C-alpha cells in the first residue's frame, strides 16, 4: 500500500508534532507501507520520511527544484521526482495514491489537502480515504468550515464519507492497518 502524507516542512511549536511524525514514520516502515511525500528533509516532512526509510519503507519524494532557500531535499529516497512547479508537485502527490494521511502543517499543507478534496469532489481524482490527525484540535476549525460549506450548499456531503479524523496517532495507524488488510483480502 502507498500512503501520501501531507504535513509541515517546519516542526511547529508543540514538540508532540515531531514525536507523532517520528512515530508515523516508524509505523510505516515497520509495516512496509510505501510513503509518498513532498521530498523535503525539513521539519515534520523529514522526520516522517527518515524514520519510514530507516525502518523499511520505500520512499517517493516529489520535490520542487529551486523553490526554497532553507528547505533541502531528502537524499537516499527510493524514487526522487524533481519538478519545476508547486502545482506539478501537488499533481504527482495526489496521483495514484491509495490513502492520504494529513498531519499538522501550514498553508502549504492546507493547500494540498483542499486541492485533493476539491479534485475528489469533482471526480478528477479517485475517492480514497483521507485520514486527519486532529490531535489537540489542530484541524477542528477546518472541519467546522467543511460542515458550514455543506450546510450552505457549497459542498456535497458525500466527501465526508472519505474523511476521517483521529485524536490519537494510534487510532489513525490502526485504521491504516485495517485499510491494508482490506486491500490484501
Secondary structure: elements and pairs:
Blueprint lengths: L1 E5 L8 H16 L3 E4 L5 H12 L4 E6 L14 E5 L2 H9 L4 E4 L4 H15 L8 E4 L6 H12 L11 E4 L2 H16 L1
Parallel strand pairs: 1-2, 1-5, 2-3, 3-4, 5-6, 6-7
Helix pairs in contact: 1-2
Task: From the structure above, extract its key features.
single chain; 185 residues; alpha/beta; 17% strand; seven-stranded parallel sheet; 6 helices; globular; 7 strands; Rossmann fold
Structure description:
The chain starts with a strand and ends with a helix. By secondary structure, the protein is an alpha/beta fold. It is globular, with a radius of gyration of 16 Å. The mean pLDDT is 92. The protein has one domain (2-180): Rossmann fold (3-Layer(aba) Sandwich), CATH 3.40.50. The protein has a 7-stranded parallel β-sheet. Helix 1 (15-30) packs parallel to helix 2. The chain is built from 6 helices and 7 strands.
Percentage of residues in strands = 15-25%
Termini distance? 13 Å
Biggest sheet statistics: 7 strands, parallel
Rounded average pLDDT: 92
Structural class: alpha/beta
- Please give the count of helices: 6
Task: Write a compact overview of the structure shown.
The protein is of the alpha/beta class and 185 residues long. The chain is built from 6 helices and 7 strands; from the N terminus they run βαβαββαβαβαβα. A 7-stranded parallel β-sheet has the order 4-3-2-1-5-6-7.
Amino acid at each position: 500500500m502507498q500512503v501520501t502524507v501531507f504535513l509541515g516542512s517546519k516542526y511547529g511549536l508543540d514538540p508532540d508534532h515531531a514525536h507523532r511524525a517520528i512515530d508515523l514514520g516508524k509505523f510505516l516502515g515497520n509495516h512496509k507501507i510505501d510513503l509518498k511525500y513532498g521530498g523535503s528533509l525539513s521539519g515534520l516532512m523529514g522526520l516522517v520520511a527518515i524514520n519510514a526509510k530507516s525502518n523499511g519503507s520505500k520512499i517517493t519524494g516529489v520535490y520542487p527544484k529551486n523553490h526554497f532557500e532553507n528547505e533541502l531535499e531528502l537524499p537516499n529516497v527510493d524514487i526522487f521526482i524533481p519538478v519545476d512547479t508547486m502545482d506539478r508537485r501537488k499533481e504527482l502527490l495526489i496521483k495514484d495514491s491509495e490513502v492520504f494521511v494529513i498531519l499538522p502543517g501550514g498553508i502549504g499543507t492546507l493547500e494540498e489537502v483542499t486541492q485533493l478534496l476539491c479534485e475528489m469532489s469533482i471526480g478528477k481524482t479517485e475517492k480514497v480515504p483521507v485520514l486527519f490527525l486532529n490531535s489537540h484540535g489542530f484541524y477542528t476549525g477546518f472541519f467546522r468550515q467543511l460542515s458550514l460549506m455543506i450546510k450552505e450548499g457549497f459542498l456535497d456531503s458525500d466527501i465526508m464519507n472519505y474523511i476521517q479524523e483521529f485524536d490519537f496517532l494510534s487510532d489513525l495507524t490502526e485504521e491504516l492497518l485495517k485499510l491494508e488488510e482490506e486491500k490484501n483480502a
